[in-house]
Amino acid sequence: MATVRPLAVEPGWLDSQDFEELRLLPMEDRDIDAFVAAWHRAARLDDDDHETLGRLERDLVQQFAQNPALRDLARTPLLCAVICALHRRRQGLLPETRWSLYDSALTMLLGDRDKQRRIEAPEGITMNVEEQAQLLQRIAIWLVRGGQGELHRSAALRQLERALPGMERLRGQGSPEAILTHLLNRSGVLQERADDIYQFAHRTFQDFLAAKEFVEGDQLNELLGRAGSQQWYDVILLSAGHCGRREHPGLVNGLLDARPGPADTVTRDEITVLAALCAQHATWLDGTTRDRVNAAVAGLFPPRGYEDVELLARLGPAALDHLPDPAQVADGDESRPFVDLINEIGRAEGLPHARRWALAHPEHSYRFTRRWDRYPVRAYARQVLALFDLTYDDLRIDTPEKLAALRDLPSVKGLEISGTLTAAELRSALRDGPWTGLSFRRNSSLTDLSFLTDCATQLRSFSLSDCPGVRDLGPLTGLPALTHVELDMSCLPGAALAATASRELRSLWLDHLTVERLSQLPAHSEPRSLNIERTASLEIDSLDGWTNLRRLGLSTRTPARPLLAALRRAPQVSQMALSLSSATEFADEQPVLSLVELSLYPETDVLGLEWIPRVFPALRSLTLRAPTHVDRIDISPVRTLPGCTVRVAGSARIVGDAPSP
């Protein structure tokens, strides 16, 4: 049995049947995405309009990605389901402000759900939305004033006992104990965290309801007195949504006049932004107050760094009104914070500003391409991305809408594709394209790469990672120009690698190999570089067949003896990068005369280098990246190698007379 109303049953009611009571942890981002997919699959069972539901599902996933407040609210299955239902009911148009979103979610939780399921008077008690809110407000304000996130049953009952005398209709329906049980079972807003310990399902609901009580109780001065505390920031902001025409000027001006003290945790700039956000909630605000707000916000420009950008971005599109003329701002570092601010805000309102700044400052093309998610997809592609030469950029594609927008971006040659895009969608969008680089990541829907034969005849670079459904690389054999391949081998059989062999292949990167020895993989005669990463352990027992190999990179545990033996039989390998777990393995080994360049990544505390001149006597270049916990490196043993250049990366202190680089 699963329930979000634990008080609906007696504690331990199934102990005799060896059942255990478990509680859900907050959902992570990937859990939210999985929940949204499952919710919409269930919705399709009683709705034949699968196309609309698919569009809504993709839109909601995108809104979660773009809106941290929305994503944070969805950490529990109950609230995630409420957002899904609200999003579907409004056909994708969720409330634009946090305040409106929380108000709508509370309305659904406190009233609409039971009405829709025709549940009337559960436990003999009926409460409308406002009555439940009034009771919950008393509990919420008690928690906020005490700086607490939970309260005991006795404290909750005391708050209800104080509220019920003024609620005549409700007072006659049951005792405070019965009404508290009803709130816990039916509202979904107040929950039991442990025996007789209660908390709100989400901290925001606590702050929202407390803010409502502060305003209705004419206690704004108490809020203004807390303006310097980070803990009260959200309560003050949410109170603005509850204010009317008379309260708004007092709240906004009070914040503009506030001066944080040395012990406060909110800066003056943060309070200015808070005042401006509160002003945004006002339907009517006198001109003097609005002028004060605009002047205060203008004083925060120009942003000096990304912290300022993030602060100003809280204002949303209103911050864009304070941007200077992009033609009057110097290129490079001076213009970058403004570009970052526009992209942080995004949305349709940011689109014309993005276009103006992209025209004036094309040097920031990378910043504009990486924030595509912030804007309406097709319009942004046409009005902003199309301004740039994207020949040498890898454009990120993770939705069907972005795939469709590629037709407006003829200069794009490289794509980094992720998300649940199917082979059919990829074939349709990529057919006959000029693609020279394609990367596929985090796609659980992709099972077939045959579409590549229709769209990748010019492909030079190919990458596949975290696509567990792909088990066959056969289509790569039909790509004559392929020179660079990166593969996540965790779900691929070693034999599948044979499909990557080609006359043009120059570089091969392999991750998460499941074989124990390199000889279990098909040898490739053409690559000049082979890199193996994130593999638990791999024995380099033979390099036979890798006839053109010049560089070997090993970011994995590798037994030293078979590796050195393989290198002695493969004199064409002159460069190597190696993760070193223990230098003692090299103590009695014979020299390798062909290696002239070595990059060493030690994982050991003891960084003795005495073995290097003996094992690699022909070395001309040594690059050493010291572990962070090593504070001293003696490189004098390498001084015996004539003409060897030593480079050290990291913060360790260097000891020994090394040759100058």
Write the topology of this structure.
Elements lengths: L28 H16 L5 H17 L1 H6 L3 H13 L8 H19 L12 H17 L5 E2 H11 L4 H4 L4 H12 L2 E5 L2 E4 L2 H14 L3 H5 L8 H10 L4 H11 L10 H13 L6 H12 L7 H8 L22 H10 L1 H14 L4 H6 L6 H7 L10 E4 L2 H6 L8 E5 L4 H8 L6 E5 L10 H4 L5 E5 L18 E5 L18 E5 L17 E9 L13 E7 L2 H9 L6 E6 L16 E6 L8 H5 L5 E5 L6 E3 L10 E5 L3 E3 L6
Helix pairs in contact: 1-2, 1-4, 4-5, 6-7, 6-10, 7-9, 10-12, 12-14, 13-14, 13-15, 14-15, 16-17, 17-18
Give a structural overview.
The chain has 661 residues and is an alpha/beta fold. Helices cover 39% and strands 13% of the residues. The chain has 25 helices and 17 strands. Strands 4-5-6-7-8-9-10-11-12-13-14-16 form a 12-stranded parallel beta sheet. Strands 1-3-2 form a 3-stranded antiparallel beta sheet. The longest helix has 19 residues, at 98-116. The chain is elongated, with a radius of gyration of 32 Å.
